[in-house]
């Protein structure tokens, strides 16, 4: 029997569990991100077309029911005022749904192990899920923005600001979606989180009104809602008016996104509610 050559012997430095592909598993990260993007592209009528129709219905109904009797808001027509809010609300809802549904469906179907077994760190898993949710949010924003331009003539006053807030909103709610998906063990729990937490925060954040019209107490409470700053910042980017400083909104958006991503990383790294 011939003796194994030195090339066949495992390196003494390469022990069991050692990462053999550098500090970042780029191939694994790209594969997870591609899977998450393919998930929503495969059912584009549900994930991209349906939000566009829903946003259009919101604009149509509010314009018909309230628009004619409502004066200008912050110097612009009511329809123009609510358009960026509806755009941003749709973005954050879809980004949240993409990340949360991916994890919950995997848990319910029992194939979450296919995501946990590959050599991916907690940070790489977070980035992979964020890629899917953020990508879906950006595509939804582009579709709605194109519709606003073609049908209402609403352009983008500050493109870089608008892009920054749309990206932050999608990333923030993707991170929240990861946390919610990990916490929920069945669809009923996920529906409760969506109906009693995500939807109220989105609707009560200045989407359809200026917070200056609120009583002082409600006005102060609204300023503790990070989604308010994201919607308000998107409104500034699209039509050039806002209730608060876009610089403050950007700082709140970045801080909130980093905070939820850190929580999501910790949950994935420790296997919270994912591993026995």
Automatic annotation (TrEMBL):
MF terms in GO: ABC-type transporter activity
Pfam family membership, one: ABC2_membrane
Location in the cell: Cell inner membrane; Membrane
Major site of localization recorded for this protein: membrane
Coiled coil: none
Membrane-spanning segments: 48-67, 73-92, 137-154, 160-183, 190-209, 247-268
Entries under InterPro entries matching the protein: ABC-2_transport_permease, ABC2_TM, ABC2_TM_bact-type, ABC_2_transport
Membrane topology, from the record: Multi-pass membrane protein
ABC transmembrane type-2 domain boundaries: 42-271
UniProt KW keywords: Cell membrane, Membrane, Transmembrane, Transmembrane helix, Transport
GO terms for cellular component: ATP-binding cassette (ABC) transporter complex
Family: Belongs to the ABC-2 integral membrane protein family.
Record-given protein name: Transport permease protein
